[in-house]
Structures are given as C-alpha cells and as structure tokens.
Amino acid sequence: MLIKTNTESCLLLAICEELQGLDSQITQNIEKKLMNLDPSHSGIIHQSELTYLLLKQKIPLKLTSLSCIFKSFSDTNNPEKVHYKELLEFIQRATDGHKHHLDEAEIWDLESVTYNDSITENQKDSWLQRFQKMEMAMQMYDIKNTGYIDRDQAKRLLHNYSLIFNLNLSPLKINEVTRYSQQEGKVNLVSALQQLKEL
Fold it and tell me: Are residues 104 and 185 in the same domain?
C-alpha cells in the first residue's frame, strides 16, 4: 500500500522540519515494538497503538500532521488501522531528507539546533494546553466523524493520554465519565471531554 507520489511529496515537505534531529534508531525501535504487537505479520496495526508508541518515544510530530499521515497509510478495508512499516519508512525518508537538505546547504549550526531542542524539551505547557492536545488526539479515533468511539477504547485512550500529557486524571473519574457519556457502548467524545475538563 503506497500513497501517491504528489501526496507523499507534500507530506514530506510538511513534516520535514518537525522531524529535525530525529535519531533514525528511534524508528527502528518503534518498528521492533510494533512487530511484537503484530504476531501474524499482517503489516497493519490499530492507530491507537501506533499513536501511543509515537508519543511515548517523543516523535516530534504535530497531531494534525500525524492525522494526515494516518489517513495516507490507512488500510482500505479497515480505516482504523494503518500500514505501519510503510508509515515508518516514510518518517525515516522525511528524516533523511531533512539531513540531506542540511548537507547540501552546508548548514552546520549545531549549537542552534541544540538550543532549539532544549527549549522544546523544557517548555512547560499549561494543564489546559496539554488537555487540548489530548482532545485533538482523541478526535483522531472518530474515523467516521460520528462524535462517538467505543467505551473500552475511550477508557484506554484517556488513561494512556493522561499519562503521556501528565494530566493526572483520576481513573475513577475516567470510568464515571465514560459510563455516563456512553450510549449503546459508545462514548460521546465532546460530552466526556467537557466533563473531564471541568473536574
């Protein structure tokens, strides 16, 4: 499964700067972890599992960029799953492409890169800003834009993102909110997130 060349070129240009300084070893580590989660070697995996690993490994991609990449590499028969090998190869090409452009231009301002990386690493977002990042991440799993996702999936994602974004959401509150915001086993995202925000 490959994305079209023109779409690929646009995405490469869009995420090239975001992936500046990414160690190629990280994508290799992620692929090994994903292969363990894919014992049947199908080559596809659920977006939630891949998102969790990418965020845990601190891949510096904006959630909007990640959403576009997921759509480009989504499985035709199951849009909630992505072809992870091709996706990671794409990220690797974007990383290598950025380094190649740096080499051609002979830009070796490593001190500046280190300084920028330090600012990014140490920047402290407010709780609300971190919560908004979680909201954006959660919306990515509403593939059909129904406003609902499965309750079990919602609980798992909220627990994971609470840890990733350091939100300190109470597991008890997450269970309560997903229970009261659900209908026929599916959680209303807007309602659930609003309730958690107001706690």
Answer: no
